[in-house]
Design brief:
With 76 residues, the chain is mainly β. The protein is built from no helices and five strands. It has one domain.
Length: 76
């Protein structure tokens, strides 16, 4: 029986990744999912997992390296 060869997955084809951000209110680290298919620049509101305050996340994804940077801002 011949060996089946499967292509090595391209990381750009994965639709989600995780990244850490620091809450704009309490400064605690939070883990969030990033939808890589949503483009290189994204923004949305996510509640802190520690203090529950809403953070505006400004997400930048380097399309070549898939490095993720997140800046946060308080919603109010």
């Amino acid at each position: 029986m011949p060996n089946a060869q499967f292509p090595i997955p391209n990381p750009k084809n994965f639709m989600q990744n995780t990244a850490e951000y620091y809450c704009a209110y309490c400064g605690e680290p939070n883990l969030t999912f990033i939808d890589l298919s949503a483009g290189g620049q994204q923004s949305y509101v996510e509640d802190c997992q520690v203090c529950c305050n809403p953070n505006i996340l400004y997400v930048r994804v380097d399309e070549d390296t898939l490095d993720i940077e997140i800046d946060t801002e308080s919603e109010s």
